[in-house]
Amino acid sequence: MLLSKLLLPTLKDAPQEAEVISHKLMLRSGMIRKVASGIYTWLPLGLKVLKKVENIVREEMNASGAQEVFMPMVQPKELWEETSRWEKMGPELLRIKDRHERDFCLGPTHEEVITDIIRNNVKSYKELPLNIYQIQTKFRDEVRPRYGIMRGREFLMKDSYSFNIDEDSLQETYLNMRDTYKRVLERIGLEYKISAADSGAIGGDSSEEFHVLAENGEDTIAVSDSSEFAINTELLLKEGEDINSLEGKPSPDGNGTIQVKKGIEVGHIFKLGKLYAESMKANVLNAEGKASTLYMGCYGIGVSRLVAAAIEQNFDESGITWPHSIAPFDINIISIGFEKDQEISAASVKLYDELTNMGYDVLLDDRKGGYGAKMKDSELIGIPLNIVIGKKFLENKEIELKSRNGQSSSNPITDIKTILEFFKDK
What we know:
Elements: H1 21-28, E1 32-36, E2 39-42, H2 44-63, E3 67-68, E4 74-76, H3 77-82, H4 85-88, E5 95-97, E6 103-106, H5 111-121, E7 130-139, E8 154-164, H6 167-188, E9 192-196, E10 206-213, E11 219-224, E12 230-232, H7 233-238, E13 258-273, H8 275-279, E14 283-285, E15 291-293, E16 295-302, H9 303-313, E17 315-316, E18 319-320, E19 331-335, H10 342-357, E20 362-365, H11 371-381, E21 385-389, H12 391-396, E22 398-403, E23 408-412, H13 416-425
Parallel strand pairs: 3-7, 19-20, 19-21
Antiparallel strand pairs: 1-2, 4-6, 5-6, 7-8, 8-16, 9-10, 10-13, 11-12, 11-13, 13-16, 14-15, 17-18, 21-22, 22-23
Helix pairs in contact: 1-9, 2-6, 2-9
């Protein structure tokens, strides 16, 4: 991609409304633009990152054995009345009417829709277990949208729903999804904790949240410094604890001591049990030929929120420091004098073609301007590796390699192997 052709409206300063670092940097780097309160357009740079996160989620879901579908965002009132959630959801559920005065809502989640599909199309225990997922836009009419993408009203989410014949089968699927979410976060390269949580409006027997650790997290979690133990302090408050007096105490699992951390909830997995299946009469015939109510689980991961959470964990004073796995581009070729010197432009294009053919996602900064301005933009948008072709190339056919973390070296332009090793190591 030529940077001169890329829609990249960077800003020197973030608007005053931006409170947290991810919101500020997503606006400054030209990833998003606000359309209305809590509603954003993803511009090309932001969409590239979003799609990379989405692809990781999809690959891991497919590897888990889940099957992808695509359900409607608009849902009829009648389904929500079956579970009594039409009223229970309150004003967060955006209700609308069509031209015939029939009631619908914009889906914040899809338990009712998927349960209706399964009860009408699955008849025997032999067809189970099933785990059905989608990656789709959701809408929740937040009373106070804030923090940009992190707490917006419209967002991209992966939600999946499992259907099992008994509790043992549900537990197996639940643990499979737990491991799948761990792989997603580890592939992206994020530090996270899994905490026991309140099931909230979704309900069910029990649930766990996946938190990306970050100072601007909205949730407070008590974690062990030596094990996986973690619990959302909302549960402790319900039990009457004082949050701060947890600090430094032995961890309940016997490993290490408790620390109080801030986290961004990016995923939530639930054992729903028979909650929705009973109210919607979702049954199959069991091995004895009798009607058996299904056991359900649901598993959500915020695809768009993961983008914001990754920034909250990966930034410095110059801008975003993306993990390689979701960076919008792998490599940026900074061409100094592209428009003036044919030798520099030819070498830049040749290197661009070589790296692209090797499978790298490459940006070529062919704009007018000097090294300082071009490097500043590259650091703001967080490209992991910069290759500078300029004065050194004209003098001795050398290029400068500079990683986003500041390490640099000079190498002959013909030494592609060194370029790729430098990129891999940094």
